Amino acid sequence: MTDPCGGDINRVCKKKFIEVTIISFCGIIGKTAWNPVKRLDRIRYHGQQPAEERRRAESEYFLTLCALEKKCIFSEIEKLPSGKVAVRLAPVGFIIEEALKEMREMYPQIRQGEHVVMPNHLHILLSVETDSRLGLHSNKWISVFVTALKRLVNRKIGEEVWGQECQQLLMDGRGDSMRCRKYIRENPLHWERDSFYPSVFAGCR
Questions:
Q1: In the chain, at which end, N or C, are there fewer CB atoms within 10 A of the end residue's CB?
Q2: Helix-strand-coil percent breakdown of the chain, rounded to 5?
Q3: What residue ranges in 42-160 does DSSP mark as E strands?
Q4: pTM listed for this prediction
C-alpha cells in the first residue's frame, strides 16, 4: 500500500513502530538503571548536540591513597582546647602537598578539588575533563595521576611511602560531590572513629 505522496505505508508504519518500541524499551530499563528522562533525551536529541559537547565531558572522583602499611607518617591530628582539631603535617606530608602543587602544572586536565592529608592516608577530589579524540577515558587519567603522584613523592623522599591500596569513587551528581566535600572537611574531627585509624601502630593516638 502507498500513501498519496508515493511512500510505502507499511514500511513507514513499521519504522515508526520500531522507533517507539526502542524508546519505550529504554524508558523501562531507565527505571531500574538510569534516569529514564535523561536516557530518552539522549536518544531523541543526541544527533542535535554540538560535536564539541559530545567529544568533551567531565567526571569527578573521590580518591583515597594510603601510606605504606597504613603507618602514621603523613601528619598528626592535634586536639585543640576549643574542641576543634588541627592537622599538623609531618615532613612527608609537606612533600605530598608540594607534589600536589607540581601535579597541577603537569596535568592541567585533572582539576584538584578539596583534599586532606590525614596521618596515614590522603583524601582528594579530582575532576577530569576528557576528550574522546585523545583516546583516554577519565578512569585512565586517574590511574596516570596516581602513578605519577606516588613516583614524584617517592623520588623526593628517596624511599617508598605509599601502600598498594587505592580507593576511587566516581561521583554521581552534585549530591555525591557535596557529601564527599563534607566528609573531607570533617575527617580530622572524626579521626579516632575513622576506618583507617590504626590503633595498633605506635605514634597514633
A1: N
A2: 50, 25, 25
A3: 56-67, 75-79, 85-89, 110-117, 121-131
A4: 0.67
